[in-house]
Hints:
By secondary structure, the protein is mainly alpha-helical. The protein is built from three helices and two strands, in the order E-H-H-E-H. The longest helix is centred in the first third of the chain and has 24 residues.
Amino acid sequence: MKVTVAHLYKKLEELDRDVVELKKLTDRLATDREYSPILKETFLSEMTKLEDQKTEILGLRVEKATLTSKQGKSAVATMAQASNEKAKQEPPVHEEPKKQERPVRKY
């Protein structure tokens, strides 16, 4: 399967952002609740999975990019198909929809 390096770079940024968000959620957990240890363990396991995905992407072999004659853009890099199949098998990370920011009224 062929994927551009730009797509991989965006995926790496997304993984980093998700890890930071999970870290913030872990830090904000109340320690006096009975569900806190379970949530903390879940967040930490998800962070580990994301870090493993990042390591896998960084370990991929990229073929030398060539220029196409018509478009002048870099051709896509070829990755190992086994790595892509493994990434497809992992469950997608669900993101909550972001709330729209409302303008602050100053009276």
